[in-house]
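@channel sequence for tomorrow's demo:
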Amino acid sequence: VSLKGYGLSQSNAVMLVDASGQCGTSTPLLAHRGLVWPQRPVASQGPGHFVAGLPVAGPVGASVAKLCWAPSWAYWSDFYLEVGPFAMVGPDQDRKFNCTFGIPCSFQLSGYGLEASSELWIIGGKRPVMASWKEASLKTSCASARQSDAADIAGFSNPSSPNSIAWPASAVHSL
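structure tokens (generated this afternoon):
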């Protein structure tokens, strides 16, 4: 998260609260696995640059949370200033898809801010499958890949979970 403003300092901090919550009275939103709140600025990046981690799961949408700011942080009530809504880009999660051997596999993806150039990697058991979607319909066509191909797919790392979806680094968006 990058902020611009007057008088920002290394003592500042930011955190997310639920979209229905209030800055200064709510605890941090913990719905996005991989993000840690609150955060102070990254010293090497300057007082307006905050890194909360790499989100790997959680709700997506235009206003899934509120970003709150504190001039200095000791208590949740210090985060009294609402900077604005926080958006999370990505596919809707916790959906189930089924494919049958010998039959072309297709399914619809939904989510928020999906780009035509985005890709996802579906991992099931020992056979990763690369899929890309078409801009107009987001209809996905799957093609088989060998287990050894996983290390050769640019931008991906082998995830620790055998049944997960991994986004390439190029698909990670920041606000």
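heads up for whoever presents: The chain has no helices and twelve strands.
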